[in-house]
Amino acid sequence: MVTHVEPPAEPDVTLTDPRDLLTGYLDHYRDAVLRKLDGLSDEQLRTSRLPSGWTPLELLKHLAYVETRWLRCRFADEPVPDPWGDRSAADPGPGGRWHVAAEETFEDVRATFLDACAHSRRIVAGARLDDVASAGGRLGDSGPAPSLIWILFHLLQEYARHAGHLDVVRELADGVVGE
């Protein structure tokens, strides 16, 4: 049985300000990701349906750390105890496998995600779109520092891609389709 879920509203079609458009779509996709996970059982959240092996709960934790790495670590150059906290201790760092510990609940990971998003919003609110990252391009890279507008666009494409992944995973898990 296929159930359809109504998508969250997109930003207003009359928006012309790039900041409002980018942040509006980021919030749209943040909401879409959470809506895709709502209603899944703990087993469904922790079960992979794809050959790559990631689970929906691991993806949510990954997105929390993507926010943290790009905006707190790279853009604002804030100290973060473990910027790769979404990775397995056995496989840490940028190429490591996503991981959620058995004792971490959906509510724990969701709270981490919401906190990361709120922190990101505060950073963005206090900066101009043409400001450049304080800590450079990527953690450990010495390449050129991207602008805030570039980072926001990068985050937007990452969210859109992963929301699409969750569309497929959710339909495979319980037949629910839609954003």
TrEMBL record:
InterPro entries xrefs: DinB/YfiT-like, MST-like
Pfam families xref list: MST
Top-rank lineage group of the source organism: Bacteria
The name this protein goes by in its record: DinB family protein
Organism, scientific name: Actinomadura miaoliensis
Taxonomic lineage of the native organism: Bacteria, Bacillati, Actinomycetota, Actinomycetes, Streptosporangiales
